[in-house]
Amino acid sequence: MRVPGGNGIMKVFREALSFKGYSCTEIYQHSFYGWGFDATRGKLNVFCLIQGGEEWLLLLEQKTGILSRVLGSIDPTEFSAFQDVVEDIFRGDNRFSNVLWHVKAEYDGGKAINGDATARG
Question: Where are the alpha helices (DSSP H) in 1-121?
Fold first, then answer.
């Protein structure tokens, strides 16, 4: 199996999240194309995956249990606050540039490839 790039980026990202109070699992190779880890704080659990290509793509997926979804006990503000932390990490570190945000539908629809970004805030 080939070893993908991006492990160094994930080490920096994981360390920064830990500094901000998130508990992170160890980084592991995700299939043949990326690196991932889980970040948690309180009830929030987020899967973080980076994959390479012409540009790096960081995917953030809030992990929820079936019971939480059924009972409606998911607080969307927690994931939004996590995304704010991620944005602060990448925009505050000059090793990262041209940080764009896309919702899944935009990425799947090809807008991410054209560089159109969703405004956050």
Answer: 7-19, 66-71, 76-91, 104-108, 111-114
